Amino acid sequence: MQGYKLTGKGQLQYFSTPPTKLKENQLKVKIEKTLLSYGDYLAYQQDSKYQIVLGRYAVGNISELADNNTLFERFQRVVVCSTYTCGQCYNCKTGKQLLCTDKKQLGIDVDGTYCDFIDVPMSSVFALPESVSFDDGLFVEQISLALNVLDKLSIQKGEHVVILSDTKLGLILGQLVTYYGAIPILVQQNKDIVAKAKDVGIFYAFDDKDDGAIESNIFAITGGRMCEKAIYVNTSDLLLSKVDRLCAHYASTCMLSCDNKLEYINAEQLVKKELTITGVSSPMGNFPTAINLLATNQIDISFLKGARVPLANLPKKLDSLDISTLETKSIIVEIN
């Protein structure tokens, strides 16, 4: 096994270790491709208390199976979910793994994907059909995360859904809102995002810097009712306190927590409007649906793909990278 490990703030060090031995219910995956994503770069720039292999997204082929495996075959194409269940909490032991209270994430809690091989639980691996390329498979997790948000909100046909996001995830959410038959309204601060929005069928996209125009436009679009549903992506620089002003009375809001701290919401307005607030932080649960959406060409993720870089050149790429490029595209890291 070989790859790059974070050894300090902004420092990646090459490592090479003997092959690991699989534990029960694990698979060994030969990683073909991974991503250099916005979250990975933030982790690279932060002080680390311990050495860890970064990287959260991976596609590849199964190279080794545990003795008790009955679900997969060697050389099968797969995508890996970055979030693991602990297997020890009450929910895990009672068959409610999606409600695990002690989830672990690749590249944050355990070694990630900036390497050639990785041992992962069978429950975190999903077969990738030949009709879905490895490049597209790298974005299954982000689609699954977005689907979890829509499930939490119980999006209904004809509803207006305001999405506060100035990163690429807002474009995924907007497409899925349309797929569900609802009407997305994207609020953002990124001119590249608004330019791409109409290309993927999101016709309402407004600049967050013009408060009055946003509210008046949404008022007009909704016939004065404002939005029944709202989604806030906290990797954006948008103010959470704006959410209640864009929502109708009795609306539902989902906070999508990724990497940054959540800012405040107006509690007084929350109570007056009787808003319901929920949250999503895990991509688990909708991987099969996300894979099917890609296999049937129901969602466009071509705009997510940025430059390509061999794993050997990753440290150099990180040193020269402008983080703003990762707001709209992820860099594909190819494992040789």
Question: Nutshell version of this structure?
Answer:
By secondary structure, the chain is α/β, with parallel strands linked by helices.
Roughly how many Å is the radius of gyration?
Answer: 20 Å
The share of residues in helices is: 25-40%
Number of DSSP-assigned strands? 17
CATH superfamily placement of the largest domain:
Medium-chain alcohol dehydrogenases, catalytic domain
Main sheet specs: 7 strands, mixed
Mean pLDDT: 88
Beta-strand portion reads 25-35%
- Oligomer status: single chain
The number of helical elements comes to 11
| CATH fold naming of the largest domain | Quinone Oxidoreductase, Chain A, domain 1
> How many domains comprise the coordinates?
2
**Ends apart, CA distance between termini:** 12 Å
CATH architecture descriptor name of the largest domain: Alpha-Beta Complex
- Uncertain stretches: none
The CATH class of the largest domain: Alpha Beta
The backbone outline, from C-alpha atoms, is globular
- Which structural class should the secondary elements be placed in? alpha/beta
Order of helices and strands: EEEHEEEHEEEHHEHEHEHEHEHEHEHE
